[in-house]
Amino acid sequence: MTQLSIKDELIDSLSLVRCDLCGSNHYTHLLADEISNIVRCNECDLIFYNPQPSEAALQSYYTSQSEDSYTTSMVDWYGQLTKERMEEDRGHLSLLENVYQQNNPYYHNDGKPIRFLEVGPGFGYMLYSAKQLKEWDVIGVELGKAQTDFARNSLNLNYINGDLEEATKSLEMNSFDIILMGHSLEHNLHPKRTVQFANRLLKLGGLLVIYVPNGGGFLGRHKLDKWEWRHFPGHLYYFSKQTLQMLLKDTGFQTERINSTACSSDYDYIKTEFCIDSDEVVMQIASLLGPLAVLGSLNIMARKITES
Ligand SMILES: [Zn+2]
Predict the structure, then answer these.
(1) What is the mean pLDDT of the chain?
(2) How far is the CA of 86 from the centre of ligand 1 (A)?
(3) Domains (ranges, CATH) in the chain?
């Protein structure tokens, strides 16, 4: 399908939706984008695109994106699979392991490898590192066909091609220790349902790790028109610290850790707003602001404490 007809299919499929978090249909218009509008729910403050596309139109869009980005992503992948990158992954994975095990009343060391599922892993760098460096039992759930083929054939990774709802049908309930959704939750038409499926797959005490564009950060709040994360239909929801915690509480999770990390436009914003020239000082300010959850990427780790 051509890019033009994919856009037409998207436009034709648009319909108004209720807030995915609280079910309200009362919202305030924030910004008119090219095809849809960004709104804020009057009841719970969730920011999202409304109207939204149909599932079929969204699937066509991702299939086309997957094909288009295949070659460049492959080059990117080879560029990134370095020793340094894997060492960074090791640090990241060790942090997840520590948060999962510490102060976890349900955890006991049975000697089995950690069962780790990533939703939207792309070509699978992180899963590959988890398998090679930590010997974790890993699986990816990925919509992109090209990414799935590559991860299966070249990295010998266990992948399910589809969304988490489809994957849940073939996976054992209450069997995973850690599930990672790194900038994938905001792509879902129904993020609450996706988190409910994650709850079913995790063991009691299991850790859900979510990174999303921060709708409650400096730029999401004050510079929405110039925000780098504004992207339809790729990003349908913009969670803040409050709305993401509300979603997690509603679906059986307790927040363990919350912070934010800077994206490139955060540095520009800090420079301009605080009138600072020194890059070093800008970096220091960004590291101080991280725990306040005001930077571009919002990062949460939450423990499953009840069945969803
Ligand atoms: Zn709402």
Answers:
(1) 91
(2) 39
(3) 82-304 (3.40.50.150)
